[in-house]
């Protein structure tokens, strides 16, 4: 997940990965982190793939235990255009569904 540093004056990004097998709580951890950043008053956005409709409609990230968070459904990360520049933290749920995740996140975390 690319983010600008918690310190607002820093311009360097950071990439955090939440990795694990199915049913290991990856989306739950993403929601936990995003809520923590929101509590710190950082401007946050969650995106998810339009093809992921496992538990709910396409505008929510949902976990196996029914935790939910508003998300922007996308086909490709580049569909965000420059919109991502308005946010301090961007969470990407189920990043493997985005074919452009590496070229999109690489420059942001450099």
The CATH architecture can be given as 3-Layer(aba) Sandwich
Radius of gyration: 13 Å
Taken in chain order, the helices and strands follow as: EEHEEEEEH
Tertiary shape: globular
Label the structural class.
Answer: alpha/beta
Q: CATH homologous superfamily name?
A: P-loop containing nucleotide triphosphate hydrolases
Strand order of the largest sheet: 6-3-7
What portion of residues belong to β-strands?
Answer: 15-25%
> Which fold name fills CATH's third level, the topology?
Rossmann fold
Average the pLDDT over all residues and give the rounded result.
83
Tell me the name of the CATH class.
Alpha Beta
Count the beta strands. Answer: 7
End-to-end Cα distance, whole Å, is: 13 Å
The major beta sheet can be summarized as: 3 strands, parallel
The total domain count is 1
Helix count from the secondary structure assignment: 2
Spans where pLDDT lies below 50 across 5 or more residues: 1-10
Query: What percent of the residues sit in helical stretches (DSSP H or I)?
Result: 10-25%
Protein name: Thymidine kinase
EC number: 2.7.1.21
Keywords: ATP-binding, DNA synthesis, Kinase, Nucleotide-binding, Transferase
Organism: Aphanomyces astaci (Crayfish plague agent)
Write a structural description.
The protein has 110 residues and is an alpha/beta fold. It has a single domain (2-109), classed as P-loop containing nucleotide triphosphate hydrolases (Rossmann fold, 3-Layer(aba) Sandwich). The chain has 2 helices and 7 strands; from the N terminus they run ββαβββββα. The strands form 3 sheets. It has a 3-stranded parallel beta sheet with strand order 6-3-7, with helices on one face. Strand 4 (60-62) and strand 5 form a beta hairpin.
